[in-house]
Design a protein that fits this description.
With 442 residues, the chain is of the alpha+beta class. It has helices spanning 2-26, 29-56, 68-103, 124-128, 133-136, 141-144, 148-156, 195-231, 238-269, 282-296, 308-314, 328-344, 391-397, 403-413, and strands at residues 108-112, 118-121, 163-166, 174-182, 186-193, 277-281, 301-306, 323-327, 351-359, 362-369, 417-423, 427-435, 439-440.
Amino acid sequence: MKSLFSGELAKILLLSFIGLLVGYQWGNIWFGVSVALAIYIFRHLFHYRRLDEWLVGGGRAEKPFTNLFWSTIMDQMLRLLSQLRKDKEQLKSDVEYFKESFQALESAVVVVDTRGAIDWCNLASANLLGIELERDRSQLFHNLIRSPEVINYLESQEFDKPLEIISPRSLDVRLEVQATTFRQNYTLIFARNVTDIFKLENMRRDFVANVSHELRTPLTVITGYLETLRDHGENLPPVWLRAIGQMLDQSHRMDSMVEDLIWLSRLEALPTNDDEIEAVDLKAILASVVNDAQLSSPDKTIDIDVAIDKFKAIDASFAEPLQIMGCYLELRSAFGNLVQNAAKYTGTGGLIQVQCFPQGDKLIVCVADNGAGIDSLHLPRLTERFYRVDSSRATETGGTGLGLAIVKHILARHEAELDISSVVGVGSKFCCVFPLARLSTI
């Protein structure tokens, strides 16, 4: 292309020189140069017209006869057009492949544009969502799925977590909806049937709740008789007294586990009761749980720091007592579990720090200790029911393996999350991360 440009430049100079000579003979140099350049321009316009007509036809007709300059440009365009056609065919093939793949899915797949109009959907959408492609193409998705939860979910553009809804086709069918955006203009919506999982989860929840309640009575009877034997067993052999003491310890541990299971089942089964939401004094509730932990672990040092000055720096309306909107019993259980855990797994003379401070638009309630710490391998599973880092150590401390699961559920009911960090040999830090908006300014 560089040589073509040089050639065209040489032609311009040559024509200008010829025009200069002719104009000199006629007594008007600029007239001669202008005529020469005009001839050059009209010649190129003639070839450009042929190129334009060829392009209007899509470049599919035989290449018109032109000079070397325009012929080279046409050759480059032909190569580009050929590559574009191949890319288009490949893209079309890929689209058809994905459509066929989506058609094979049992889950519903719906593609909507920026207006929320349906662009495409698979066959399963008819059974799960009641949407058919031929009938509902270009219809607004929210007009067909009349669910405020789905509309809010799609409008929020926060697709990190799926949404569970009841199918518009049947009240007995539960759907899990997950969306994602692509090409900045379209939203891909997946809806899968989770009815069986939902039923199994309900069965598990009911089973745990029923078994927990059924175990309460026999445990109470067993514990009562064991305490009677212990209190009136002066004449019993020492080996019997030792056995009775061990059975009492295990019955108390089992009773604690049953209480935790009942509490966890209640958190899972019952929605948050608005009547239980109140302004809770953060400093008072933290002082209460720290006092309980100090009584049970007098050999540990537990400090409290509620950074009221940092809250006032953000908003002068935050003043003592610093109050958070929530359920007192649930928050006390969550904070109490964290402080008691820190006390259990921190050695004699250990230091536990309970801190409350703002961080951006978040409210942080943090319980940190200088205990043995936890390997990072275990951190993702700490909030699972009955998961223990060291089962023998948990048995010694009387842990049930349900404390952090309870904390996680309570925080979720308060729009909060549990953030865990730990370093082996240094200590652990359990932080409750609340929205700062939950603080009461009244």
